[in-house]
């Protein structure tokens, strides 16, 4: 039995969402033992774990569908995380950007958390039961994440001249990567038509309003620059992803299937 | 018509908890539930998986026992250990085939935690989700105060929304000066 085109779409979609979560989770995990103070260090670790947990759930879903289709090569979550190369990863580029300073991480996290508030709310309605279940679980966590990101944005944006400058620089550097998060290719359009995938266009305006509100409240300015970068969903990445994967996959590739 | 024997029933436990207990009471394998009562959260050893609300169901089909659990948080690193502990407990009890299935839906909520579990948490030095005072929403924020599990004072304040694990927030008590964790409502 072969995987039908519809199932193939669903597998790809689950992998994409898994990639977004895994790569961002990995970036956040880089703060562990480097946080500005102990509690914040722990908070970053908590949030990184939530994202990596989501990646596991999305990849496991992809593997389950693959395996149910009776394919010869049985797959697991680990195959997707550890044995794919850069061009096969389909995460949005914003997730792979280096962690930068704490302002940079905060701005990225604000953008992604507020996006996820809407994204997961919509994914709860997915006709695919397991995607909906993952969204129900993750949305609860995101309500905590987004509150924290807003607090930090206020604190740093409305803080010292130095913290404000760093926040503004981060915002100017990252903004061009947000547009890609609202673009959908044919694959996602097919899944939207089937009621499986989230139609980001529906919440773009609401998300922009939320971002604008918190940014102006923090004394920062939304960039006017028109540049934008895209390509993540097609497997075209910045130079950063390769570096992440070498670190992320090193142990598994050196000692395949090793167990603790 | 109501007669003279009208009894005022004061609900002492939530409907959700009542439902859980009824489900367990009518299970065909009470001995297996008892076995798993000895399996605890590896991070909070005073809390059994049942009391935590993570243990959802136990089914037996001949030699095969299937245990259904649900994760607290997506990235909870304790889930794998819990699965292994369940496996080990049932195998030691003489069950030959054990499988542990992780179900995500409906999503776990602290409402499933039993009253006994909440008491055990407090005696372990962790405030239970309902020990929160002075908050408008269920979300823990900077205005949240929680009853100190050590001295009972409500003169406490939040240190961090994220404690030693995802499920907990970190507080300090201004009366006894001890720090403590709060199990967050989710």
From TrEMBL, chain A:
State which residue ranges cross the membrane: none
**What InterPro entries does the record tag this protein with?**
Aromatic_CoA_ox/epox, Ferritin-like, Ferritin-like_SF, PaaA_PaaC, PaaC
Q: Which domain of life is it from?
A: Bacteria
Q: What is this protein called?
A: Phenylacetate-CoA oxygenase subunit PaaC
UniProtKB/TrEMBL annotation, chain B:
Which Pfam families does this chain map to? FeS_assembly_P (PF01883), Zn_ribbon_PaaD (PF23451)
Residue span, PaaD zinc beta ribbon domain? 140-184
Q: Residues of the signal sequence?
A: none
Task: Please name the InterPro entries in this protein's record.
Answer: Fe-S_Maturation_MIP18 (IPR052339), FSCA_dom_sf (IPR034904), MIP18-like (IPR002744), PaaD-like (IPR011883), Zn_ribbon_PaaD (IPR056572)
What are the MIP18 family-like domain coordinates in residue numbering? 32-93
Top-level taxon in the UniProt lineage: Bacteria
Name of the protein this chain belongs to: Phenylacetate-CoA oxygenase subunit PaaJ
């Amino acid at each position: 039995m072969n995987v039908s085109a519809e199932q193939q779409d669903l597998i790809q979609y689950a992998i994409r969402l898994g990639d977004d979560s895994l790569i961002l989770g990995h970036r956040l995990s880089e703060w562990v033992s480097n946080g500005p103070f102990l509690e914040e260090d722990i908070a970053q670790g908590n949030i990184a774990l939530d994202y990596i947990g989501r990646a596991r759930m999305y990849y496991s879903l992809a593997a389950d569908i693959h395996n149910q289709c009776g394919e010869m090569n049985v797959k697991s979550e680990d195959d997707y995380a550890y044995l794919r190369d850069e061009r096969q990863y389909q995460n949005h580029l914003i997730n792979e950007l280096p962690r930068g300073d704490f302002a940079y991480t905060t701005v990225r996290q604000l953008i992604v958390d507020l996006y996820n508030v809407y994204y997961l709310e919509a994914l709860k309605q997915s006709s695919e039961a397991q995607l909906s279940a993952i969204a129900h679980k993750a949305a609860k966590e995101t309500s905590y994440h987004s509150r924290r990101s807003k607090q930090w944005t206020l604190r740093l944006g409305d803080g010292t001249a130095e913290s404000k400058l760093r926040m503004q620089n981060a915002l100017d550097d990252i903004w061009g990567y947000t547009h890609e998060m609202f673009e959908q290719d044919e694959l996602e359009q097919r899944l939207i038509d089937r009621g499986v995938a989230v139609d980001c266009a529906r919440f773009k305006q609401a998300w922009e309003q939320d971002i604008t509100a918190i940014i102006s409240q923090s004394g920062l300015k939304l960039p006017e620059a028109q540049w934008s970068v895209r390509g993540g969903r097609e497997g075209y990445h910045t130079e950063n992803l390769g570096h992440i994967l070498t670190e992320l996959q090193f142990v598994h590739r050196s000692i395949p299937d090793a167990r603790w | 018509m109501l007669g003279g024997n009208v009894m005022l029933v004061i609900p002492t436990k939530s409907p959700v908890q009542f439902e859980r207990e009824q489900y367990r009471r009518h299970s065909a394998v009470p001995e297996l539930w008892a076995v798993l009562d000895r399996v605890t959260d590896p991070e909070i050893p005073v809390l059994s998986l049942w009391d935590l609300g993570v243990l959802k169901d136990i089914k037996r089909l001949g030699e095969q026992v299937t245990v259904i659990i649900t994760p607290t948080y997506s990235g909870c690193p304790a889930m794998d250990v819990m699965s292994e502990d369940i496996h080990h407990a049932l195998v030691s009890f003489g069950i030959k085939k054990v499988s542990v299935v992780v179900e995500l839906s409906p999503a776990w909520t602290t409402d499933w935690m039993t009253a006994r579990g909440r008491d055990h948490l407090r005696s372990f030095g962790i405030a239970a989700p309902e020990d929160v005072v002075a908050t408008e929403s269920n979300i823990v924020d900077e205005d949240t105060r929680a009853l100190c599990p050590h001295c009972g004072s409500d003169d406490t304040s939040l240190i961090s929304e994220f404690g030693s694990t995802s499920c907990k927030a970190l507080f300090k008590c201004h009366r006894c000066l001890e720090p403590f964790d709060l199990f967050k409502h989710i």
